[in-house]
C-alpha cells in the first residue's frame, strides 16, 4: 500500500477539484482518502450514504489530535490503523484517526 499527496496523485489533476470529484476519483482508483477536512467531507459522506453513493473509504484526521505538520506521527498512526484493520474492506468506511 502506498500513500500519495493530492498534488502528486494523478498528476495533480484533482488539486482544485470539488470534494465529490476527489472522492469519486479515489473510489475509481481504489484509494482511501485521508483528510484533515472535518468540516465539509462529513456532510458529503452523509449525503452519499443517504443516496447510496459509494466511496473508497475516508480517514478523517482532527488537527487538534494530530498536527498537520507532524507527518511522521500521521504515518505512524496510519500504519497502526492499517495493521489493526487487517483484511477488512475500506469501501464506505469512515474512521476518525487516533494517535496510537
Give a quick precis of the structure.
It contains three helices and three strands, in the order αβαβαβ.
Notable features of this structure?
alpha/beta, 100 residues, 9% strand, single chain, three-stranded parallel β-sheet
> Number of domains in the coordinates?
1
Instruction: Write the H/E string, N to C.
Output: HEHEHE
Give the overall shape, derived from the CA principal axes.
Answer: globular
For the terminal residues, how far apart are their CA atoms? 19 Å
Estimate the helix proportion, in percent: 25-40%
The value of Rg in angstroms is 13 Å
Which percent range describes the beta-strand content? 5-15%
User: Order of strands side by side in the largest beta sheet?
Assistant: 1-2-3
Could you give the count of β-strands? Answer: 3
Structural class label: alpha/beta
Low-pLDDT residue intervals, each spanning 5 or more residues:
none
Amino acid at each position: 500500500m502506498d500513500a500519495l499527496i493530492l498534488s502528486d496523485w494523478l498528476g495533480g489533476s484533482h488539486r482544485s477539484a470539488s470534494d465529490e470529484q476527489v472522492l469519486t476519483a479515489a473510489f475509481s482508483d481504489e484509494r482511501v482518502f485521508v483528510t484533515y477536512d472535518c468540516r465539509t467531507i462529513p456532510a458529503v459522506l452523509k449525503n452519499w450514504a443517504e443516496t447510496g453513493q459509494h466511496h473508497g473509504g475516508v480517514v478523517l484526521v482532527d488537527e487538534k489530535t494530530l498536527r498537520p505538520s507532524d507527518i511522521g506521527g500521521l504515518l505512524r498512526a496510519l500504519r497502526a490503523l492499517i495493521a489493526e484493520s487487517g483484511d477488512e474492506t475500506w469501501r464506505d468506511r469512515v474512521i476518525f484517526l487516533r494517535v496510537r
